[in-house]
Amino acid sequence: MCAAVYVLSTVTGYVLTSALLLKCPNLLYRKKRETFISRHISHRGGAGENLENTMAAFKHAVDLGTDMLELDCHLTKDEQIVVSHDASLQRVSGINAHISDMSYAELPPYLCKLGVTFQREYFCEGREDKRIPLLRDVFDAFPNTPVNIDIKVNNDMLIKKVSELVVKYDREHLTVWGNASNQIVKKCYKENPRIPILFSLPRVLQLLGLFYTGLLPFVPLKEQFLEIPMPSILTKLKDPNRLSRSQRFITWLADTLLMRKALFEHLTARGIQVYVWVLNDEEDFQRAFDLGATGVMTDFPTRLKVFLDRNGISKPK
């Protein structure tokens, strides 16, 4: 009887303490310093309105007032940091070659029309600008705009050179970097711990485990940005009639586990921004912000801008 009472009181104390700290994490942790807050994030510069990862796309998004540019980096044969999502040039330029095997001067332009990954059966047609830009071009053109850098390959030289460029342009307070790979994120943090990092995929899974066991409020987190997909958008990216029952169940389960307002609010209170990607319609914009997401990443910066303005959603003071 005494043992049962002890166990019950211990479990009750743990649950109550966990619940309290989940709601009020600043009782245990100092809130991380936020040098910028992003509501409006342009995925690949806005791949649905201009050719992805081009200077034209970035300029259009910045002119609209985007809070952040999201882009991807690779290293050329002559060690130039280029902004491109794919390691291969096949999809974007129609050439069977890899960026790492060519010098920057040899890189071909983008095709005139590219498919938009997160908008089913949608293609974006380019205008004059079809050049693959250098990362330094982006830093030169938009010195005050936060940039979210996806380090696409596990390459020590790429990580080192991106860090050097960020430092050269005095952008450590305006940059976040990382990748789904935990190994890449660890290397980024080791190379330059002053640049905020993203949660890798293994760390996202660990985060969920901590959240659902009640341990999250007790665990320190070095990451400052959580970027996660909204799993339910899978039903919009594929023909619903072609999704199997198991695919629908997995999508529902992932969405139920990941899209949690209590989790988003806890992280936000600790100074960790939550970005949901890649959302391209108003229904998903609304759901993300209702759940407490800090910001939304989109291929259509104009759509998101109109939504934010109409709903009076602005950056917190």
From TrEMBL:
Where does the GP-PDE domain start and stop, copy by copy?
38-308
CDD domains in alphabetical order: GDPD_GDE4
Keywords of this protein's UniProt record, alphabetized? Hydrolase, Lipid metabolism, Membrane, Transmembrane, Transmembrane helix
Which GO BP terms, alphabetically? Answer: glycerophospholipid catabolic process; N-acylethanolamine metabolic process
Q: Name one GO molecular function term.
A: phosphatidylcholine lysophospholipase activity
Localization: Membrane
Membrane-crossing residue ranges in chain numbering: 6-29
Q: Got a GO cellular component term for this one?
A: endoplasmic reticulum membrane
> Catalysed reaction(s)?
N-hexadecanoyl-1-(9Z-octadecenoyl)-sn-glycero-3-phosphoethanolamine + H2O = N-hexadecanoylethanolamine + 1-(9Z-octadecenoyl)-sn-glycero-3-phosphate + H(+); N-(5Z,8Z,11Z,14Z-eicosatetraenoyl)-1-(9Z-octadecenoyl)-sn-glycero-3-phosphoethanolamine + H2O = N-(5Z,8Z,11Z,14Z-eicosatetraenoyl)-ethanolamine + 1-(9Z-octadecenoyl)-sn-glycero-3-phosphate + H(+); N,1-di-(9Z-octadecenoyl)-sn-glycero-3-phosphoethanolamine + H2O = N-(9Z-octadecenoyl) ethanolamine + 1-(9Z-octadecenoyl)-sn-glycero-3-phosphate + H(+); 1-O-(1Z-octadecenyl)-sn-glycero-3-phospho-N-hexadecanoyl-ethanolamine + H2O = 1-O-(1Z-octadecenyl)-sn-glycero-3-phosphate + N-hexadecanoylethanolamine + H(+)
Q: Which Pfam families match?
A: GDPD (PF03009)
Q: What is this protein called?
A: GP-PDE domain-containing protein
Q: Which organism does this sequence originate in?
A: Perca flavescens
